[in-house]
Amino acid sequence: MDYPKDELDAADKRAAARLSKTPVAVSAHYDRRRGRLVIDLNTGLQIAFRPRDAQGLEAAKPEQLAKIEISPSGLGLHFPDLDADLYLPGLLEGLLGSKRWMASLLGKAGGRATSEAKAAASRMNGRKGGRPKKKTDIHDAG
């Protein structure tokens, strides 16, 4: 489908105006000493995080993180050796993966959470013979 030139020009201007107000990546590298991915932004700020905390990079080896490509817009990071991508606006919002992936991490962390109350309840259940068996109702279809 062909769009009129004036519509394309207007869209380009809107995109340029939006990008001028949005932080974009100007460089990115993996810092082996610190074990962090480091992204420098056009605002002068720098963000850094552990690769294992980002979806697609959880099991990456340092040599796989050596090559990072920044998209022309500066909003995307691509790791060719892993075929993984990160979206800068999501990173800036603290999202290191999809909603489903982030929720699974939170679920795992919640399951590992321990508190004095949880430990006491577990000890009490242990003294009583453990968790009670589930009751099942059996109805005759008769």
Describe it for me?
The chain is an alpha+beta fold. It has a single domain, classed as NE0471 N-terminal domain-like. The protein contains 4 helices and 6 strands, in the order H-E-E-E-E-E-E-H-H-H. It has helices at residues 5-20, 88-92, 99-112, 116-127, and strands at residues 25-31, 36-41, 46-49, 69-70, 76-79, 84-87. A hairpin with a 4-residue loop joins strand 2 and strand 3 (46-49). The longest helix is centred in the N-terminal third of the chain and has 16 residues, at 5-20. The radius of gyration is 25 Å and the shape is elongated. The mean pLDDT is 81.
CATH superfamily: Uncharacterised protein PF10387, DUF2442
Note the total helix count. Answer: 4
Please describe the biggest sheet, giving its number of strands, its sense, and whether it closes into a barrel. 3 strands, antiparallel
CATH topology: NE0471 N-terminal domain-like
**Would you list the SSEs in sequence order as H and E?**
HEEEEEEHHH
What is the topology, as strand order, of the major beta sheet?
Answer: 1-2-3
Instruction: Please bin the fraction of helical residues.
Output: 25-40%
CATH class call: Alpha Beta
Gyration radius (Cα, Å) is 25 Å
- Please report which band the strand proportion falls in: under 5%, 5-15%, 15-25%, 25-35%, 35-45% or over 45%: 15-25%
Distance between the termini: 66 Å
